[in-house]
Amino acid sequence: MIPNEQEVRALVRRILLDVLSDETSPAAKADAPSAPEAAPRTIAIAADHGGFELKQQLIPWLQSLGLRVMDLGTDSRESVDYPDFAFSAASMVMQGKADAAIIIDGAGIGSAMTANKLPGVRASMCYDAATARNAREHNHANVLTLGAGMIDLDKAREIVKTWLETPWGGGRHARRVAKITAIEQRFSKANC
Questions:
Q1: Strand ranges (DSSP E) for 94-151?
Q2: How far apart are CA 144 and CA 103, in angstroms?
Q3: Is 140 among the catalytic positions?
Q4: Distance from first CA to last CA of the chain, Å, rounded?
Q5: 153-165 and 129-137 helices, crossing angle to 10°
Q6: Domains of the chain with CATH codes
């Protein structure tokens, strides 16, 4: 049975109330309006074979920005499966071992889909500075995915720099991100 619009709105309100009433929830704390967060200092980075070359070019550049970089592979152009590497990098964010992650595959789409399956991960595939800024400021993205087949090194650096330097906006955006978290929590509880 497909719920009608009123039932969907009631579900979203109930989910949001569940999240907001749980003051001990890490997600509620992370999404609460607050002072701007510090820029990420530890970055997990991973790529499949399609993103290998771009990953290799970005690592020394990221390090030159003073970031600690965790290279999670792949280590060659030999064909591999992007979900394995997307999961590895997103896991570092989920576990708090990295402040953020960058995942690179041919288009950036599949890695974003994979990463977004992990609790607490908000992955966004960005293709220019505007989408990078929006992903961080409005959506509190903590994982960036890039499509090596869609952008060159200069564009990748522009996207990554914008993404890293843009703080989480909080405020009016916090309510919306809390709803994303609430949906995630609702369905993860349902699957337990």
A1: 100-105, 123-125, 143-147
A2: 6
A3: no
A4: 22
A5: 20
A6: 42-165 (3.40.1400.10)
